[in-house]
Amino acid sequence: MSKERLNLMLDQKIAASILDLRHNILAAEALYHREPNSVTLLGVSKGQSADKIRAAYHAGIKNFGESYINEFIQKQESLIDLPVIWHFIGPVQSNKIKIIARHFSWAHSLDNIAHAQKLSQNRMDSQPPLNLCIQVNLDQEPNKSGLNSEDLPGFMQQLEGLTGIRLRGLMCLPKPEIDPDQQYQSFMRLTEIFNQINTGRTIKLDTLSMGMTLDYTQAIRAGSTLIRIGRGLFNAYPSA
User: Fold this and answer.
1) What's the domain range around 24?
2) Cβ-count burial of 238 within 10 angstroms (0-12 exposed, 13-18 middle, 19+ buried)?
3) Pairing mode, if any, of strands 85-88 and 63-66?
4) Nearest C-alpha neighbor of 104 from the set 138, 147, 75, 142
5) Which of 12, 43, 17 is nearest to 239 (CA)?
6) Pick from 18, 106, 7, 9: nearest CA to 61
7) Does 240 fall in a domain?
């Protein structure tokens, strides 16, 4: 089979996955009384080829999430002709900060004030502020990054006054649950924290980054504004 034929089949497969995902997201928004198109679909493209990202972009996905810096740089260069909105979704580490600050529009996993300060220092004046989500460790799991909920107010206070960055919301990776109601209850804990933080704030947080391939429907039910989908988009498991 020719390369052109294989590429066409790849494009069609990804486009079909995205169409199914869009349908499922709209159905969940309607079922749970959310505004239509109030949930952003972020394609988790780490480990995926530039060709797959290009196919997904042309099928309507504009936001893509990356974790591996060296891989990302190669793909960004290959896709320089596309106005992709890049999200960093891996752990923020000191040796990655300059690239995150200069090459991404979003970072979803902030939990360290020193990293926030360095992101601020490395964001160029000519760039819009880097959008940030604070990662919350809902279950206080020792093997996961993120802040405990009680540490959020003090952490957010330390962010005030930093230039070049803009706090947009919260992100979580809760313990995996099979039961949909348990998934929903986990996500609702972050939604409640989010709502408490916004009470009395002049500038409201507007982003809840939660939900992946296996639980995004319940994340939407709980109020997610951004779901991170990898396998369900690129490997054609849209109903998972």
Assistant:
1) 3-234
2) buried
3) parallel
4) 75
5) 17
6) 18
7) no
CATH code of 218's domain? 3.20.20.10
As a whole number of angstroms, the distance between CA 238 and CA 21 comes to: 6
Q: What is the pLDDT of residues 106-117, one digit of tens each?
A: 999 999 999 999
Number of Cβ atoms within 10 Å of the Cβ of 239:
9
What is the tally of structural domains in the chain?
1
CA 9 and chain centroid, separation: 27
Summarize pLDDT for 169-220 with one digit per residue, the tens. 999 998 889 999 999 999 999 999 999 999 988 889 999 999 999 999 999 9
Q: Which two tokens stand for residue 35?
A: 């505004």
Side-chain half-sphere of 97: how many Cα atoms within 13 Å? 17
Give the number of other CB atoms < 10 A from CB of residue 142.
Answer: 6
